Amino acid sequence: MVVSSNKFIILKSNPDTNIISGLPYAHYSYSGCRYSAVKNVNIDEIDDEYKNLIGKKIKLATVQGKIVDGEIVAIKMLSESIPHFGNVQAWSGEYSDYVYTDEEINNEVWNLGEKYLVAEFKIDEELDDENEIVFAAFEDNQSKAYFTNYDADDILVDRVHNELSGNELFKSFQQEYAGYESYAGDNWWESEESWIQRASFETDNNETYVSVLSTAGNPCGCDFYFYVYSITKFNEDGTSEILFAENEEYYLVLAIDVEGDGILEFILDDFYGTRVLLKLIDNEWKIYKEWSIPYLDCPC
User: Fold this and answer.
1) CB-hemisphere CA count at 13 Å for 176?
2) CA-based torsion, 180, 184, 185, 190: positive or negative
């Protein structure tokens, strides 16, 4: 179950907003640019499957690979979005001498966002501000999360690109790139216009997973923009396996073994308000779930 704002488990999208009670009473900012506001709901109008979650013990996974204990304490309605930076500046008074009150920000954040029915939880320990909670499971799950190192070794990244050089996406982009003036006989993913977002982690089985977003060019003011997101597994015996390679823009938020059975699932973010769960289904890695909020900022 995906977590929002370090406080809420997403239960249902497009909920019945007629069950809302009162005005938004708080707003939160997390993960750099995500804003959310919360309202109470009439508990008597909630389906039993959600009402019965109150009091349930849960385990929560953070981006630093820590598992913490928690308990569901209430059902709420959440509104979440990535607002335009101009809105955020206006709220803080950067455009004028007027600084918005908390109540005014609550209302603006509420009106901008996608609505979700959520379960509010409390945790048994304090976490630092950078240790975002991103996933929740019920107490009987033997979940294990892995800390993601966002400075993966250059040698590993080079090995990933060597593995992917024969990939059809890589080859088609290379053929197109060769037609541009900036082409100097180099690979598109190694050109002056390239940028790489990398991450890696190791499992208890001495397997190393490397997440790489390979890009060249940019979507604003450049003749081309190529990008491929991949996850590659390197085994202890030196062999490797490309698990996923698609024409997508993602970065790895968290790798988690939800059931404790050694099979990983990956939570990915597309930078623009969408998070997905990548899961092994019928021996193929597929996007299993997707959660999107309005992206109202400038993509450049």
Assistant:
1) 14
2) negative
Which residue range forms the structural domain that includes residue 169?
A: 154-292
Q: What are phi and psi of 218, to 5 degrees?
A: -160, 160
SS3 for 183-235 is: CCCCCHHHCCCEEEEEEEEECCCCCEEEEEEEEEECCCCCCCEEEEEEEEEEC
Q: Which of 93, 120, 141 is the last residue of a domain?
A: 141
- How confident is the model over 110-164, as pLDDT tens digits? 999 899 999 999 987 777 766 788 888 776 666 677 777 777 778 888 888 988 8
Q: Which comes out higher in pLDDT, residue 277 or 142? A: 277
Q: Is residue 270 part of a domain?
A: yes
Residue 243 has pLDDT above 90, yes or no: yes
My answer on whether 219 and 271 are in the same domain is: yes
C-alpha span between 123 and 129 (Å, rounded): 14
Question: Is residue 245 a contact partner of residue 285, using CB atoms and an 8 Å limit?
Answer: no
Same domain for 260 and 176? yes
Q: What are the residues whose beta carbons fall under 8 Å from the beta carbon of 48, sequence distance 6 or more?
A: none
